[in-house]
């Protein structure tokens, strides 16, 4: 699992950390040892951190304007001035990739939030109240899951219109069915637990028990699905934008950048390769963390 | 057995009806009705009389419930309505595009299954640890790279650089290889993940140790026991992969500029051609549900435990189109809850 693409080798000197066995293991050393053993997790976390910083404070990484058109520097190859080259309008591609992180990442965060929220509401209702509500919600989930996911997202985009928020909502609603199913099963499990029994016995009413005990305890196990869904949402939103159904020009977005560079694929492959690699590396990093969480949870 | 089949069939029809209704509600009944928007769009320069005629033609002058019942009635007669942009019958439009997309998805399916089988088997049986590590990371990699990126890389590498495959669809089988391979890589990720996990779990089962103790070779054990036992969760995954294939063909056909359902979908979305979108959803869902129905039917043929359950009438709501069937010890582990979700989402 450690052979991830695009990840640099472990920090130099990883092999020769001579540690005397009798030395007291301070917290710092333990953290260091853990990071050396799980270097791929650390690298994945670092990649995600950089991507998040790109989205939050793009000005730290580049001083160029992502939409400023430069008539004299069209389609320049990568150089020290333009790391990823420039596009057909002379815009610095690295700057556009950095600023594109905001659309891509915020879109997927919103999508996952919508998925978890809608999924929690339906899943909790079905699991807690059971009977016909459960039956109804489960049938609804079946129907939503029986429509191929990406196609359902496209259909919702038709209704909502183009744009990153709309694409995020479409992806979020589509993914909510999977969340609802998982949270329902977690709620069913929590329902039989002693702390819920205790809460009910001490006179708490349904909404209180649900909100204070059942839902918080059901969300933990969904963490791995959340992290996986995050990567999926990035890919889906990028795919929607690639098809022209997500981010609209001139705002930069990773899938959009790939689509824009596609016409120059034969002569200027770097226009496609860098944004494409960015998506792949970020999603890979996210999925790697997701797997790590999932494995920790199993233990 | 016949009763089981009938039950599954009835369920499939019910799901299809519900999916169609959901699409209808989404596309027609919501406020901001796009057909009306299209007619009212000043750019179309329609006189109010034209608008009335058009509305009558598309049945929009009736209340939504009547519209829905009429659409359902037409659907039962094989009529999916008419395209808003050129008035062609949606069924004709989709019927013309379907063979190309079916060829694409079929070959993509074959590629995906072959890749998954190769990665799964080689990753479990190789003696070299480095190869095992490498193959284990292949699914994660394939799941992380968007299919449009894979498609573009294949297009640029094999068409523009090496000139091995044609860059545009010229009707030959060779032109199909690139897009089908793109689809294959996309669906191979979950398949090989599940297959690897399933092989590992099966190989830990007592019957494998018994066979080993009696002197059977690894190849014999694989062919006579492990393969069949570990293919069950993969079968469920194949059904799920079908949905991804259909949806993935939208992206793949866009990358390779092929005609097909995907291209029609994209055009319909861009022109707000709702009847066509609705038709595409119905056709895609039908394909998805049909494949899952076949998976359901094949399951008891492969697994005698399920067959016994069905014959004894013990089949508790076996599995719905996307649920996973716990089919016995060992397989449970391969179907750890995170796997189906991880898959159902891309």
From TrEMBL, chain A:
Keywords: Cell membrane, Membrane, Transmembrane, Transmembrane helix, Transport. It is found in: Cell membrane. The keyword Iron does not apply. It is a multi-pass membrane protein. InterPro entries: BP-dependent_transpt_permease (IPR050366), MetI-like (IPR000515), MetI-like_sf (IPR035906). Pfam families: BPD_transp_1. The chain crosses the membrane at residues 39-57, 105-128, 140-160, 222-247, 271-290. Residues 1-21 are annotated as: Disordered. This is ABC transporter permease. It comes from Streptomyces rugosispiralis.
TrEMBL record, chain B:
It is found in: Cell membrane. Its main location: membrane. The keyword Membrane applies. Keywords: Cell membrane, Membrane, Transmembrane, Transmembrane helix, Transport. It is a multi-pass membrane protein. Residues 321-346 are annotated as: Disordered. Residues 98-299 form the ABC transmembrane type-1 domain. Belongs to the binding-protein-dependent transport system permease family. This is ABC transporter permease. It comes from Streptomyces rugosispiralis. The lineage of its organism: Bacteria, Bacillati, Actinomycetota, Actinomycetes, Kitasatosporales.
